[in-house]
Every structure is written in structure tokens, then in C-alpha cells.
Amino acid sequence: MESAPQISPKASFPSKNSSLKFLLVIFCLYFVLRAAAYIIFPHALTQASDLTVNNILSAINRERQLRNLLTLNTDSRLSSAAQSKADDMLARHYFSHTDPEGNYIWPKIEAAGYTPYLQLGENLAIEFYDTESLVQAWMNSPTHRANILNDGFRDQGMGLDFGDTTQGQYHSVIVNTFGTLISRSKEQVASKTQIASPPPPADTQPAKPEPQPESESVTELAPPSTTAPVAAEPPPFNINLAIRGDEPTKPSFTVATKKQHETASPSPSELAPQAVTGQKPKFPFDQEQAGRYLTLGLGAVLLVLLLSDLKVALSQKIQKLDKKLNNIVLLLLALAAVAMIYWL
Q1: 72 contacts 62 by C-beta, under 8 angstroms
Q2: Hey, what long-range contacts does 38-44 have (CB within 8 A, 24 or more apart)?
Q3: pLDDT tens digits, residue range 106-146?
Q4: Are 51 and 134 in contact (CB under 8 A)?
Q5: What value does the CA radius of gyration of the chain take, rounded to a whole number of Å?
Q6: How far apart are CA 250 and CA 245, in angstroms?
């Protein structure tokens, strides 16, 4: 009677080849999904977006240049106050011209050294993702537009901060400050007075003065000047409006004004202009986050494969050569899994 054929230990261990094939399929699928994520999902907003301080400042000046207005100088003191306001709005999650204690930005500007000033202004915005949509929203708002195109402003500053939306923070906070120093305003008025002189009258003879009594002196009137006199009290500051980019139906609008050397901050009054919206991303996460989720999934699959293959290798008695090869594969899998988890 013939005995049944013996199955060698090598033939009874099919897990090595199947594991390698499964691993190859997983890696191919991973790279395909990463390529798809690169095409479908947007780039990381804080890295690929053109929303930067310099870009916004340049865009503001372009709007002024298109209307033959002087470009604004970037003042570090206005920028310092604006950045402090942006950081505070992001950290304490409020959207207003006043902080939770009711303080305006004006004391921050004075503390930064921008004084004595003739007028100040502030534009706010949150939840914008690119410079073009931000500036366009400001230009579509009459009050923001008035600040940007104010011929009386000579300086501007910019504050920009980004938050983590997964932690409930704003994606972006933008604070644009404007100002004019009193000394600079006086110099400009003097230069205009020297350049613009009244044209001489055409073929007109001066009126003959009426005879005056001998006891009275004749006073000669000076010709009228084309330059308007400087007002003793500067006009109030322009309306400053806050823009929220992601809530077109219920935006938060406030108006803040400030006069020269005013110590008490005025209370904001409510305003209801047209809603201004920013462009909201279509997906809840960006390209880099999608890639990390895929890598995390691959690492989990590799760990499961490592544990199952290790269990089979220890439970079966195989030849020494096969055991060494299997251990090398397990080591490579472990290194790959550890490296990808560390990268996350």
C-alpha cells in the first residue's frame, strides 16, 4: 500500500509570496491615490496661497495707481500695530474693530510711535484665501473703498495671520491700517501752494478805489489763493468696515471713527451695507492633509501585514534559508512602517 506523499515545509508556507504580492499591490494603489489627491484636492492654503503681506500692499497701491492717486508708503509702525491686532483677533477669536475689552487699535498705533497723526483708518477681513478676492471685496464695499482711495492717506501697514481651522480658528485674519502724520500733511500743503499759482487775470483793470477820508488808512486786499486753507480741526476719520469672507448672509459690520488726539474710544455704530464674501474651499482638507491620511492608512496596512506575517513565521517550522529571507522582508516592512509613521 502506497503511502501518501509528504508535503514539505517549504510548500506548506505560501504566506511569503502572497505577502509580497499583496505589498506590491498596496504600494501601487498608494501612489495612484496620491497622484489623484494631487489633482483633485487644492494645495495647502498656507503654503500655496498668494495671500501675503507684500502682495496685499502692492494690490492696494495698484488700485490707487489706476486712479492717479499717490501710492502709500509702507510704515513699520502701522504694520506693527496691525500685526498685533491680527494676532490678538486670531488668538482670542473675535472679529471686530474693538477687542473683548472694548479697546480700538488707535492706542496701539500711538504706542508704536506713529504720532502726531492727522487721520487714521482701519480695514478688517477674515476667512479669505487669495489676494485678488480680498482686495476685490474691499473695493466692492463703499466704506473700504473710501479708505483705500482716500487721497488724504500717505502711509499704510498690514497685519496677516493664519490659523488652524481644525482647531476652530480662522483660516486668515487681515488688518490693513492707514494714516497720515501731521508734519507730512503740512509739507504736502506747502508744496502744493508753491506749485499751483493763480493765473493772471485776462485784460482786466483793477477797480478804482473809492475816496477815503484822510483820517482812515487804505487797506489793500490780497489776491485770492487757489489753495484751500488748512482747517484748524482735522476732519473725523474715515469709516472703517470689517469684512468676513465666509458668511455672506450674516456678516459682521461695524463702523469706527477717531478724531485727532481723542482719548476716549467712541462706541461703534451699526451699519448694514451689502454683504461681502470670500471664496470658500470646496473640500474640508487640502492636498497635503489628504496625502497624510493616505500614508497613515498605508502604515496601518503595513503594520497589520507585519503582525500577521510574523505570527505565521513563528508558528511554522520552515527551512533556515526561508526564515532568513522572511525575516529580511519583515525587517523592511517594519522600517517602512516606522519611517512613514515618523513622517506623519
Answers
A1: no
A2: 38/287, 38/291, 40/283, 40/290, 41/283, 41/285, 41/286, 41/287, 41/289, 41/290, 42/281, 42/282, 42/283, 42/286, 42/287, 43/286, 43/287, 43/288, 44/286, 44/287, 44/288, 44/289
A3: 999 999 999 999 999 999 999 998 999 999 999 999 999 99
A4: yes
A5: 35
A6: 11
- Type of residue numbered 323: K
Phi, psi of 93 (to 5 degrees): 55, 60
pTM: 0.52
Q: Are 109 and 160 in contact (CB under 8 A)?
A: no
Contact assessment for residue 242 and residue 97, using Cβ atoms and an 8 Å cutoff: yes
Residue 87 per-residue DSSP state: H
Model pLDDT for residues 48-82, shown as the tens digit of each residue:
568 999 999 999 999 999 999 999 999 999 999 99
Which secondary structure element, helix H or strand E, spans residue 155, and what is its range? strand 155-162
Cβ partners under 8 Å of residue 40, min gap 6? 283, 290
Alpha-carbon span 334 to 144, nearest angstrom:
58
Query: For residue 161, what are the β-bridge partners?
Result: 173
Strands of 20-79, DSSP E: 73-74
